[in-house]
Amino acid sequence: MLSDVQVSITRVNDAVHDIPLPQYASEHAAGMDICAAVEGEFVLKAGETALIPSGFAIALPEGFEAQIRPRSGLAIKHQIGILNSPGTIDADYRGEVKVILTNFGKQDFAIKRGERIAQMVVAACSRVRWDEKNSLTETMRGAGGFGHTGR
Questions:
Q1: What digits encode the pLDDT tens for the residues 67-92?
Q2: What gap in Å lies between CA 66 and CA 56, rounded to an integer?
Q3: What pTM value is reported for the model?
Q4: Number of neighbours of residue 74 by Cβ within 10 angstroms
Q5: In b/e form, how buried is each residue of 37-49, taking b as 16+ CB within 10 angstroms?
Q6: How confident is the model at residue 2 (pLDDT cuts 50, 70, 90)?
Q7: Domain holding 41: CATH number?
Q8: Residue 41 belongs to what H/E stretch?
């Protein structure tokens, strides 16, 4: 059974109280939907990228990150995605969460205030301590990559 992680959240100002905070859309959803805190409607033109505000900021516990990911429905229906997918929110970041949305399609797309534009997954992450070696252990795969298996 999974355990809950407590994360502090705040709205960035009084003008975004109508924007839903991130929430899970189903019982077993991995990601929480993030809604757009745009004024009225924002048109994302075909081929353009824009930084879309969410209206909230979070304080993740040490050892956690939040990944900002695209919504599959927006991707398949409107070719809307996240340019730096997944975007990473570090545990020490305290600014407003914003989403780098890109319109990969040929039609302009209107983003409405409060519309679900992305999803956020909070996950544990590890810090690496490098152990530099003169060589690495051998494996069957070795240095093969980039489609080397023919699949």
A1: 999 999 999 999 999 999 999 999 99
A2: 13
A3: 0.89
A4: 20
A5: bbeeebebeeeeb
A6: low
A7: 2.70.40.10
A8: strand 41-44
The mean pLDDT value for 23-51 works out to 97
Burial class, 91, CB count within 10 angstroms (exposed 0-12 / middle 13-18 / buried 19+)? middle
As given in the structure block, the two tokens for residue 84 are 């730096």
**What single DSSP character describes residue 125?**
-
Distance CA 36, CA 20 (A): 9
Q: Are the beta carbons of 9 and 56 closer than 8 angstroms?
A: yes
Asked if 65 and 90 count as a contact pair (C-beta separation under 8 A), the reply is: yes
Q: Which domain holds residue 44?
A: 8-124
Sign of the Cα torsion 112, 113, 118, 119 reads negative
CA dihedral sign of residues 70, 75, 81, 86: positive
Q: Is residue 86 part of a domain?
A: yes
Please answer whether residues 103 and 109 qualify as being in contact, where contact means their C-beta atoms are separated by less than 8 angstroms: yes
Domain total of the chain: 1
Give one word for 44, left, alpha or beta, with left for phi > 0 and alpha for psi -120 to 50: beta
141: three-class secondary structure by DSSP: coil
